[in-house]
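REQUEST ID: PR-0412
SUBMITTED BY: lab tech R.K.
PRIORITY: routine
TASK: structure prediction, single protein chain
INPUT:
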Amino acid sequence: EDGIHNIEIYSVDNAGNFSEKRNYVLKLDHNPPYVDAAVIAHEGLSLVKMNAFDAVSGVKKIEYRINGGEVMKYDNPVPVFNSPSDVFLEYRAFDESGLVSQWQKINIPGKPVLSGRCIVFAEINGSERKIMKSLTPGCRLYDSTSAENFITDFPEEMSLSEYVLLDESDIKNVNEKNLELYVQKNCRVFLLTADEDLYEEQKGEWSVIRENFETGSSYFGGKTILYERKVSAGEKVEIKFTDKLPLVAVIPDENS
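STATUS: complete
OUTPUT:
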């Protein structure tokens, strides 16, 4: 039967003498890996999470394709942006012995596209966050009425941008925080933050366009730096921070 079998081999002659024993491990695997997928629907997109299991050989990879298109390797949840028509996604798994499961298919029903929006979904450490439509003086930085919560001044580049409203739990959590957002247009993404709160290895992905900017908010504890990065439609932006999360704002890239 399928499984991992330990085999011990030795011989015995007519006089009762035993040869040296040798041990071997034999894998018998006739079944392809098991694979499934789950769709998590949000307002502007659906995230498809896939999982595979193979008890004998182990899983090598998962592949998927959307509407019969290019076959892609699965690494992270797959975003399927809202579309007026249904979208079908097929997926399969390979194990380390070369066995492949059959293509399986899930259907994602059509939903209205969020017209005029750049950001369609944002989450921090796996929990969804609100998207605010227009950054103006006096806006809240996070979902609270705390005095430090309001920002009275910000760089003009960010004016009227969409931004991610933080949760009060994000402020109290002193551990590493991972922010992910998905955009459906070519966009300019801005980070307004204290310099020490952005990991050094991430700074190379961003351009500094303003330094020593005073926001008038005690949340940042002093002067800030404004970073910018251009992203393409359908892209996921991932940002890791040590302490205070930045003000993350997005505007359409009119030059792309």
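NOTES: DSSP finds one helix and 21 strands in the chain.
REVIEWED BY: pending
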